[in-house]
Q: What sequence folds into this?
């Protein structure tokens, strides 16, 4: 996002400022003190131009942390956005799951290049699917060729599944009813099924629930005070939070409040709840070597091309994303109905966590909104 706002951005911000929905005003007369930072301007534009109801951002550099907000925590009335509110973390969960698997590798209980069949015998079966060829590394790196279970749950009609409880084996059955998409290791393609299986592997090897292992081995070890795995049946979100919004289905395209939902379909691939500050801290602790021995962290950072955007690469539960100011940051991100989160950490200790209270496309153009969120993350790292 450029350091100067466009006239369209400025006009939109003036309207929202008059309604009290942005954190900073944009006229010289309205600004008391220094002008808003590039990061603040960037997240204000996510509200004014892209239509996101609320934005929360946390930036840490040189040991100092800033939290910024824009928008309103509710659509129906003006409510201040919490500085570090709870959000559904979605696929950021995958990095937590990968860390536990790699800790088990460090403990000699799991081998990265061992077939999945060794740890989950008889479980992974289907047309063109061979568990004796799919390794643990293939799962963590999304190179297994396994079909994605979230493509086959009817999530596009979210009003029909918002409060439905799923068992992990229901999710696996939805995936394995479809054929393999390619031979293991042949290419990269994102599939939540990989991390569903990684969670089941953790449970088989440790003989304990995956949520307990993630809590004890990662959340508590990293000192994350506002990250948790919701218990079965818990559809709520701890306070404070901004309300999350989504489309009910592709036909009516009605916006509904999805703050309360059953996240069981996310499982080890996407069930965690966190805050932007905790997600940024997690990435910083992980990349700084606080959760894995050096050898396993190096394996995590061995990447393959992930052709989502130019320059993106994927390790083991970890994206490498290029920055406009040079270098890369390491992180993941999550998309789950109601919330999108992005961010990560650099090798020199900078970290960013950013969350919006709707998926791109809920209120505006999907591709444009997604790119704008990533530009805001880049601004937070580089401005």
A:
């Amino acid at each position: 996002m450029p350091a100067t706002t466009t006239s369209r951005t400025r006009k939109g911000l003036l309207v929202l400022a008059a309604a009290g929905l942005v954190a900073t005003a944009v006229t010289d007369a309205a600004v008391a003190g220094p002008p808003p930072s590039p990061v603040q301007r960037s997240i204000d534009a996510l509200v004014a131009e892209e239509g996101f109801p609320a934005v929360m951002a946390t930036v840490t550099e040189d040991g100092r942390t800033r939290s910024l907000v824009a928008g309103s925590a509710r659509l129906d009335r003006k409510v201040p956005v919490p500085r570090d509110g709870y959000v559904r973390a979605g696929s950021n969960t995958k990095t937590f799951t990968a860390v536990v698997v790699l800790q088990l590798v460090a403990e000699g209980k799991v081998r990265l290049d061992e077939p999945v069949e060794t740890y989950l015998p008889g479980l992974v079966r289907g047309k063109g699917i061979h568990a004796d060829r799919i390794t643990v590394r293939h799962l963590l790196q999304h190179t297994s060729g396994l079909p994605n279970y979230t493509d086959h749950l009817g999530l596009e009609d979210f009003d029909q599944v918002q409060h439905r409880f799923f068992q992990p084996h229901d999710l696996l059955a939805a995936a394995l009813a479809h054929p393999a998409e390619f031979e293991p290791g042949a290419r990269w393609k994102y599939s939540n099924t990989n991390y569903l299986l990684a969670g089941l592997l953790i449970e088989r090897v440790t003989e304990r629930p995956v949520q307990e292992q993630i809590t004890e081995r990662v959340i508590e070890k990293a000192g994350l005070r506002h990250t948790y795995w919701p218990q079965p049946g818990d559809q709520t979100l701890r306070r404070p939070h901004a309300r999350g919004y989504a489309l009910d289905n592709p036909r009516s395209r009605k916006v509904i409040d999805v703050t309360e939902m059953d996240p069981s379909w996310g499982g080890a691939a996407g069930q965690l709840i966190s805050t932007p500050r905790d997600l940024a801290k997690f990435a910083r602790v992980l990349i700084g070597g606080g959760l894995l021995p050096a050898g396993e962290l190096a394996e995590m950072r061995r990447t393959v091309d992930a052709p989502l955007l130019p320059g993106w690469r994927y390790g083991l539960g970890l994206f490498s994303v290029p920055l406009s100011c040079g270098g890369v940051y390491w992180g993941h991100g999550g998309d789950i109905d109601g919330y999108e989160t992005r961010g990560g950490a650099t090798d020199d200790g900078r970290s960013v966590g950013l969350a919006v209270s709707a998926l791109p496309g809920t209120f505006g153009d999907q591709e444009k909104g997604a790119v704008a969120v990533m530009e805001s993350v880049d601004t937070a790292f580089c401005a």
